[in-house]
Design a protein that fits this description.
19 strands, 9-stranded antiparallel β-sheet, globular
Amino acid sequence: MKGADAVKPTDLTPHYLNLFESAALKPAIDLTGLGSMKLGKSPAGVATTPKFESAVYGAGGVIKKPGGMVLTAKHPNNQDNVASRLVYALSSTQFKSAKRMVAEVVFDHPDAVLNTGKPALDQWAVALNFKTGNHNDGSTDVRVGPTCQFLNGGDVRLGMVVHRIDPLESHTYKHYRTQKATFRFSLYVERTNATSVAGGALDIDGVTDSSDLSNLPPNLSGITSANAFTAVGIAIVTPGVNDPLKVPTVSARLRSFALWIYP
């Protein structure tokens, strides 16, 4: 399978589902035994405190107002380093042996604000990754996955190896909030004993883009790789801007994280 079809799981119910309902980060569904997700950060990042917003339900359990976890990333010294805030599920064995894995995050309310209160124009991202290492970003970690890139105050594009030139959507952050835009962001990895492929897809209220990554890094090719994936999850990533007046605080509300693992 390729492109958008590859990121569609073959069964509707995820093997793991986290709705980000509280600081415990316990899953609503866990057929995998992965347990709670863990917060992390990059060496240059700040351990910001997430904000949890409860969903409002109507008759028959229909969600009238979504909830989730607002995750914020910022750089402590307004320097040129990229900083990130992370939330990952960890496993030392399950990701290593799986032949196919699909991960999906649903989020909304993307925002990038300067110290002046104005929207930031520089590029930042919500990333969805399988990676080596743990729930923190390490200098030797190997990451595989797409990025949902925001730039110019609200343009959105899918980033893989080759970034799209034209934005998938072009609005303001205020527009995405007032119009209740939903971002559905997916990643797949397929492996044999010798080769691996991956790709991602981004859907914004029915407007979709997808891209394939033809080959994973050599040290992650094949399910027998000794340097296997040990974490899967989401990163909120700041831009690297060498100007204290242009370094924003970036955030998004994570509504759900789902994972399918096929041995």
